[in-house]
Description:
The chain has one helix and eleven strands. The chain is mostly beta strands.
Amino acid sequence: xxxxxxxxxxxxxxxxxxxxxxxxxxxxxxxxxxxxxxxxxxxxxxxxxxxxxxxxxxxxxxxxxxxxxxxxxxxxxxxxxxxxxxxxxxxxxxxxxxxxxxxxxxxxxxxxxxxxxxxxxxxxxxxxxxxxxxxxxxxxxxxxxxxxxxxxxxxxxxxxxxxxxxxxxxxxxxxxxxxxxxxxxxxxxxxxxxxxxxxxxxxxxxxxxxxxxxxxxxxx
Length: 220
């Protein structure tokens, strides 16, 4: 995950350095952007499932911008990817292939998380103010590409730390929906997103409804 964050951060800095070039070459019709955010779970409580304070994730996207008449405002439709990481406190996913997902308590661990990765179709309405400020309100449909889990800790109760990974998780939703909001100055924006659908099927796992808050970089 650290490598992914370094890659995304490098790409974000590249966008900042080349934002005007991207804008000039595409006549403002193409937008490339990246977000770094943390997720806050607003869903119902679930047995042995509690998240830590910071649950870092990221997204990357490209959109095509359609002018709204003769104004500077636009509507945007695009394609992107999003990765959500949910870091658990004192629990791990011992049976990811069960029909109903449950979490097992663990007292000694270094890291315990589940991860969901999506392909996104974002739609936004962008309002440009004074040619430097932009407010964007949108929605996003996300299609699950893959899910996985990881725990580093004393999972077997033998006093040793083990690293256990699973490449998929059962009983998850194939499609989720989100609302998004951005308020930006030039290339930098505040990003807020809210996912209306839990990644798990109803009654098959925790009700995770993430409120995502972070910063974004996009070619203005």
